[in-house]
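Write out the 3D structure for:
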Amino acid sequence: MTAHSRRDGTLSSMFLLAANILIPVAIFVFATGFFPYKPLLSGLATYDTVTEYGDPPAAQFDRLVFMVIDALRSDFVYAENSGFEFTQSLIRDGAALPFTAHATSPTVTMPRLKAITTGSIPSFLDVVLNLDEGDESSSLASQDTWLAQMKAKGTGKLVMYGDDTWLKLFPGTFDRADGTTSFFVSDFTEVDNNVTRHIADELKNNDWNTMVLHYLGLDHIGHKGGPRSPHMVVKQREMDGIVRQIYTAIEAQDHLQSTLFVVCGDHGMNDAGNHGASSPGETSPALVFMSPKLRALKSNLQSPMPENESFQYYSTVEQSDVAPTLAALLDFPVPKNNLGALIPEFLPFWSNSKDQVQLLMRNARQIRDIVLAVFGPGIFESNLDADATAESNTDYRGLALGWERLADSYSKGTGNGDDSQLIVSAAKWLQHAQGVLSSMASNYDTSRLFLGQATAGVALVAAIIAAAWCAKDKLVSFTPLSGIVLAYGAMMFASSYVEEEHHFWYWATTAWFAYLGVKGYKRGNVSAARQTLFTTALLLTTRIIRSWNQTGQKFAGEPDIVKTYLNTNPALLWCLIGATYLWAHQNLVYGLSGLPIWLSFTTTTGLVLAAFTFKVAFTLEDAPELVTDLARYLLKLNFTHGATLITRARAVFIGLALLTAITVLFMLARRRISLNQSGTSTLLTLYTLLALTQSRPQNIPLYLLYNLQHQLLSPTTSATSPSALFSPAPLSPTEISTSTLLLQHAAFFAAGGANSVASVDLSSAYNGVATYSVGAVAGLTFVGNWAGAVWWALAGCVMLGAWRDGGDGNRGDGKKGGRERGKGLWKAHVAVLTVFVAGSTAGVMAACSALRTHLFVWTVFSPKYLYCVAWSLGQHLVVNVVVGGVVYWLGAREGK
């Protein structure tokens, strides 16, 4: 190696290292500017600060039971197939007043509880903090909430049982509490029984004024089996039984006579049982107020209601409306940061119209104080009368003008005996103010936004320089990659394209394979028939893969292979699953062929059988309708009959870990554990078993198709290899890197992934986990959702290793030739991937900055940024660079 080449190699390495360091730096800097905490008014609201309205109206209730049923979608309570039969009887009787509460995105627990308790609109950053059980930065201890107001009344203690998110949000608030982790979604029963066991005793106690109950089982059932799970109606009936128990106690016990009972969901769920985005099912939880006193309102509404695809039943209110409504009913000041409006259906509780006006004016005055704090007194001191058109616009000038007119009407209307028009005007202004302030843009730190983009741009330039310097091919071979990066960056500026990103990867992969086919014809190294077979096979498998799961937003419910053929034909499903495990078994037997045959076959059979029976038992627990009688019979015959799912999963993980360690030790010792294939291929097979364990049953057959594509694209040294019939001239290193880049993304979306928080699949996040561990759950969640992408990252290592070792038939120069071919190969591969990651990150950042005032900034672009973080840090840096680098290095060492 000449001094010049050594210098170029060093410089390219430095640029590549700089690019991969700058990418996470850019992500962090941009995130601190894009997801800041919003400024809030401190302290508790008091009646003393507003005296012009006189003494506040009398409370209608003196005690509150607030029951949250996690993911309680509106139809779960109100529709005809609901298990809430007792609750529906209360609605018909007029003792319950039902609403559909609109939950804004992100529809996850922590931000939704913030909206319910403060009446404000939480930051999108809370969707990230919601995942960290140990986080305390999101605490509401210093903020004004209805919990703080009830505690300040001093009329009783506060108690809480259930989701420990409440304890994290309100440290030191509750006098008695028993929290339960909200993330252990494998638990349908104990997590709720731990709440229920406290209720009977607490209903007998007379020392509390607020009892919060937060049930999690229904949400967990949704995550594991979806809204149509056979466990769902059973759980609804269980929750309805709790409602009956509490309501009956309110009627029977003297100290509970003036208790308001509220049952609500923090969010809903989509058809997959997940939540976090903005589909109608996710944003439409139920909200029911219950009390014998409510019969005085004489609502007596129809219940149950016919199915409604929009999930809008009865009146629709905002979740933030809960805070001012509770303030009026329980007689405490509206929390300072509230943006909600008093629900007008409760106004008839106060027969005196003056009281109704006062309640609305106090609510309006509190929101007016927010406008004043944010924009200063100048917004009210301006000559608003000269701007008569402002009232019709949803801007702050119009809001100020509306307040001035409302205040003037109140001062003129006091004492004239006609308050009906004033009530209408106040309610109208509250609705207007709520709409304006709720859509208020976040306080972005634009300097950090631009600094983050600039850093990503520098990372892109560094990656391009590194790729150009260490390229194994001519620079013209980077043309397709350049087109992918540019097209992807431009696509990020359109919300519809972001929601339907899977189409980009499907079409790009199809176009790429067509390009490889045409290029193969031009090379003329193989027969036209062989090249045609290769291209046709690749395009056909790609077409099947893209039809496996409909995803995105517009066509998510449309027919696909899973819904049309597999869910309706369990026998076909388990035939394909069985074939996949048999293929994995055969590959693993080959991969361990360096061991004694009795040991390799016995070990492989035991591990694959354990993995297969775990999947049967797992499916039998979550979706028994998908398990055939034969699969149930095989499960009973297995030696692990009676073992728990946790034990079964741990057995699989331990077996995989042991075989992986043995394989790595062989590779480190420069020995082959397989007589038939490389050690990297054995590691890929072992990961395949992990991917099958972490994938939904319906997605398991996809790995048969992935393997076929892998065989078609891989260099082969044997003319008798099955793939030799189809394989054309081998791909170049850049073509291998580009192929794996495309296939990683296509595999992610083919399994049902999307740019939505709601598409995160938690069904396998707790395999083998007995107690909540953020590290274990995060890792299993990532593997469960990026299983296919990780598979292709490792498959890329195998293909590069085959190219390095002369898999195209050019091994005439032996080991030395392999080492020469392998120089800088991995670095060139990483450089190609880094160019895309840096370019895509810069594109997403630019789109988020340019469209930060867009209507869909929190529902489309912000989730996309979070996925960009996961792809850049998780898939690229951890999987492609670190894990892939280790695997490639082991393969190179094995071949020396």
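Confidence is low (pLDDT under 50) at residues 130-137, 383-394, 717-725, 808-814.
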